[in-house]
Amino acid sequence: MSGGLGFLSSLDLRCGLGLLRLSTEGRPTEPDAIAVIHHALDRGIRLLDTADVYCLGEADLHYGERLARKAVDTWHGPREEIRIVTKAGLARPKGRWVPNGRPEHLRKAVDGSLQALGVEQLFALLLHANDPRTPFEDQLGTLAELQRAGKIAHLGLCNVSIAEVRQAQRHFSVSAIQNELSVIDRKSATEGVVALAADLQAPFLAFRVLGGHAKVDTILKNRAVAPIAARHKVTPHEAALVVVWEAGPHVVPLIGATKIERIDSCPRPRKPPPRWPHRLRPAVFGSFPRARAPAMNRRSYC
Fold this sequence. Notes:
The chain is α/β, with parallel strands linked by helices. It has 12 helices and 10 strands.
């Protein structure tokens, strides 16, 4: 499963765990959240996805990063195998989600993430969103500057178009792309972003793989997934997850869970689900186009 995973190639990844719902509105208690993360780690998940704004508001910034650190520090397994990917580029004034890519904001966010995670260098930082009020060149240049200063090992992008990735490449090596991808939202596949990630040998971190918390039940009625699930005697949610996973060896679905039971829907590393056909991608996504699509207007934050 390591082919095409770039800087994550040392890990055997089938899924990553997104900490958004463990850190934001309606979140469980910290002990319960840590129990969910521990269960994911026990099942072989080695990638934790968080952000400085995974929190309730400005007074709670970096909660998700502190949660990840506490969970890893208190886990009794091989902690050296775990990788934490975090993000910067949003703000949470009065609990809202607002892009903020001003250089001074990004510098402060990175320093806060270093402190919250208790490290001298961030393993991976993704620009959370392109702030339309700040020149994209300034945002990219600031991140490149922080990487040269040794504060960030690997840089990537979230919620982006092909044009934005190409622009970022002039400033730094794009090590990861994180966009929405599911049987409900196929834009990143049909418009070439998934293919571009493969060309760059960068992992594509797929979020909202089940459509997001508000749309998760829509999977039950999906015309592509329901027949596959029935034929192979799995749940529609399991079928939808594996279809995304089958999108390519560089695609890593990020699952979100607030309860231990939800973690069990992610296939274990090294053990593909039984009775599964070799490739399901054509049945849902079709053939991926090459990376030449126009920019996308994407305002759905991970």
